[in-house]
Amino acid sequence: MRLTRRDFLATTAAAAMLPRMASAAKTPGFPQDFLWGASTSAYQIEGALETDGRGPSIWDTFAAQGRIQDGSTATQACDHYHRFREDVALMRAAHFNAYRFSVAWPRIVPTGSGAVNAKGLDFYDRLVDELLKAGIRPLACLYHWDMPQALQDQGGWQSRAMAGPFADYARAVTRRLGDRVKDWMMLNEPNVVAIFGHGLTEHAPGLGLGEMGVLRALHHQNLAQGAALRAIRAEHGDARLGTVTSVQPCRPETPSDSDRAAAIRWDAVWNRVAVDGLLRGAFPDVLADKMADIVQPGDLAAIKFPVDLLGINYYSPNTMRHAPGRMFEVGWGKAPTDRFTAMGWPVQPDGLYEVLMEFKNLYGNPATFVAENGAAYDDVVSANGQVHDSERVRYLADHIAELRRALADGANVRGYLAWSLLDNFEWAFGLSKRFGLVRVEYDSQKRIPKDSYRWFAEFVKQVRGL
């Protein structure tokens, strides 16, 4: 696939951004080796759920229970399992030099532990080779929410016993791909997994266990992560190891003492258990009493690890209010903005700057990269077959501007990956929400690059000096 400058200029909304892009390209601040690209996850794009020995996951079960809002499933999704070469070509045409994908645990170890499925590993072999051929650096994430159902039946993240199977799975994948893949992320957004899948019922496995369910799931993911990091490091001294978490500033809805306290509590749950556990081997004081029965001697040392590259997912700040009777006595308040995505999420780009500077000022400025940043909008295909998503173009431009500001102020940021390359299966929303730079027509599997894709491609080309 080849996109010419004429193709780009034919897009009205994207062309309108050219002055901003040219200015960005000339502004110092983006290192030559800065990572530019996109992220995806296996369950959301691969399809082929019963192909080549893949086992069932918790999301297969969740969908079979009728808990997907639009009634769809990920059975086909974007059919990336069969169309990955076409998708890598899209990345290459956009001048990407990095791509974060996830490996499907049930595709590699169908029963969660025990026998390794060679055909599952064969797929990622092919994908990695195609990426390297295109000059794209693969960043692999080992867990993006698709726990094998067999392990869920044994307790899932409510059980400390998951650390062993996860470390074994990590060894199996890195032994096969570690000669070519050097960047390994352990988990994706353990906070979202714990809150929405264990405390609440909105995500798989949908347990609704409240506060203690959240804290157990967070702590046990931390333990599994620590075990996997050590397992990989023992065998791959040249690997760059890390993880990915969603970090959102937690701001009070009002200046009241109760709302400020609610924001502090939610910050502890949403951000600090995962981040402080990994980087400091500590948990927030505000949660100490609740976690006392969960944390065992030696746990804090087991979850702390000196990572090489930390992925940060940013979408918006969390505006919090005091809400008695709700989990952690917090609720979402009204954000002070008039910009919202189709998910109902507020658009507040300054929060990305705040997060990046926080890692500089509070955590010793570790090497980070923006692993996800993007927006769902109600895209429409125009009469000429194009998608003119000017809101998404503005979203990306505004957040990249905040990223540049953080770099100028000394934040140790190494890359920016948009979420997502493709429209995909958006978890409990099914196929109804579209985050992609590229539209996917699910019936035909046709890929339609949107204005945002063309804008980002031209931006990356200019910044990289291509």
Secondary structure layout plus pairing:
Layout: H1 5-9, H2 12-15, H3 18-26, E1 35-39, H4 42-45, H5 58-64, H6 80-93, E2 98-102, H7 105-108, H8 118-133, E3 137-143, H9 149-152, H10 163-177, E4 183-188, H11 190-199, H12 210-235, E5 240-246, E6 250-252, H13 257-280, H14 288-291, H15 299-303, E7 309-313, E8 318-322, E9 330-332, H16 350-362, E10 368-372, H17 390-408, E11 413-419, E12 438-441, E13 446-449, H18 451-464
Parallel strand pairs: 1-2, 1-11, 2-3, 3-4, 4-5, 5-7, 6-8, 7-10, 10-11
Antiparallel strand pairs: 8-9, 12-13
User: How many domains?
Assistant: 1
CATH architecture tag: Alpha-Beta Barrel
Question: Into which percentage range does the β-strand content fall?
Answer: 5-15%
CATH topology title: TIM Barrel
CATH superfamily: Glycosidases
Silhouette: globular
Structural class: alpha/beta
Keywords:
about 475 residues, alpha/beta, TIM Barrel, 8-stranded parallel β-barrel, 18 helices, globular
